[in-house]
Amino acid sequence: MDFTTLTVELLKGLNNITGSYGLAIIALTIIVRGCLWPLGVSQQRSMRAMQVLQPKMKQIQERYKNDPQTMQRKLMEFYKENKFNPMAGCLPLLIQMPIFIMLYAALISPQFIQEAGNSKFLFIDRLDKTLRGSAGNSYDGYFSVSGGDRFVIYKNVKITIGDEVLEKNNIIKKNAVEVQGNVTPGESVDLKISLNDINLKFDELANITGAEVDIQNMKTREVENVKFERRDNILAASMPTNTPKSEFNTDVLILILLFAGSMIFTQKIMMAQNKNVSQDPMQAQMQKMMGTMMPVMIIFMFIIAPIPAGVLLYLVVSNIIQIIQTVVINKQMEAEDNHKNLSGDKDISTLKTVKPIETKTIEEKK
Question: Which of the chain's termini has less CB crowding within 10 Å, N or C?
Fold first, then answer.
């Protein structure tokens, strides 16, 4: 079982529990973020330590700027002495990236589209919709097509064997449909199914005369009932086509804006929580600029890239959980700092790690 099928099956199982594929995606997000919570704590502590230690790190860099090897050695000693791992903040992002890719692959897969692509949730019309798409009317006798369209078996499958009709949905492989020639709007598209992709006994395959199958265009999500005829070792059919209508999905745009807004809010919370921490002015300015530019860049990327609504829902919920996590963990760290101050413990910011360069004055002999 590949990762895409595994993810679809996981969503299917969560759907059986929650009663909605939208709630299933939210449940999956909560499970993932819950498993990553300890790493999130480590990430925030690492970021806070980085801000506190930045001035001292800069001193080392300035002092040994003409000796890169010594500078690197001194920095490693500095990290070790203060128990600081500069890569700790990157680990949660690296782990989440494969999860994002798996979810993306699952929601654009034929398995999910056939199972739950038309699922609605709150204001979301379809969980497999992207911001811009091509629409076609299902079961109108025409496929709305453009170059490079792919077709898959949908649900209803009827195979004629002699004088009998066998109706069984999973009897033909989902990806068994192939296009013969090119796909051109306005011209008939030729489709074929190899007998090798039909799960029947040899004597039954030999007596197949035709089939009636619901076929889906993966790009437009349009479904048409197609009648196939037996030709040697294949089932062949021809369907008329037209040009698809372009559509702009406002519900997906709302999800993109919600995602960007939650990112901005997360950045503001983190900056507000760190306002009492001594920071290098240039670093603070860079953080502020990144907090403004990053959401804009991501909105631009999501407008260009075809991200399904279900993936955007995952990202929005993930950001909301990140906001909660940031507030909770920062309050814990503030409580720890207050406890250290009351007990007289030394804070990490007071550690003496870089020996200042002493200046000597030489008195001239008179």
Answer: C
193 sits in which H/E element: strand 189-194
Range of the domain at 202: 135-246
pLDDT digits (tens, 9 = 90+) for 89-103: 565 666 667 777 877
In a domain, 359, yes or no: no
Q: Which amino acid is at 4?
A: T
Q: What is the pLDDT of residue 53?
A: 65
Question: Furthest-apart CA pair in the chain: how many Å?
Answer: 125
Other CB atoms within 10 Å distance of the CB of residue 33: 20
Complete DSSP assignment for 98-142: HHHHHHHHHHTSHHHHHHHTT--BTTBS-TT--SEEEE--TTSS-
Q: Are residues 142 and 232 in the same domain?
A: yes
**Domain count for the chain:** 2
**Backbone region of residue 267 per phi and psi (left: phi > 0; alpha: psi in -120 to 50; beta: other values):** alpha
Cα–Cα distance list, 295 to 7, 99, 205, 262, 353 (Å): 28, 21, 56, 9, 37
311: left (phi over 0), alpha (psi -120 to 50) or beta: alpha
Q: Name the 3-class secondary structure at 144.
A: strand
Give pLDDT, residue 240: 92
pTM: 0.63
Q: Are residues 215 and 144 in the same domain?
A: yes
% of residues, the chain, pLDDT over 70: 67
C-alpha atoms less than 13 angstroms from C-alpha of 291 in its C-beta half-sphere: 16
Q: Are residues 21 and 76 in the same domain?
A: yes
Mean pLDDT is highest, among 174-183, 286-295, 322-331, 356-365, for 174-183
The predicted-structure confidence for 298-332, as pLDDT tens digits, reads as follows 666 766 767 788 888 888 888 888 888 777 777 77
Residue 365 lies in a domain: no
Mark whether 148 and 198 lie in a shared domain. yes
The CA-to-CA distance between both ends of the chain, in Å, stands at 90
User: In this structure, is residue 347 part of a structural domain?
Assistant: no
Q: Are 288 and 271 in contact (CB under 8 A)?
A: yes
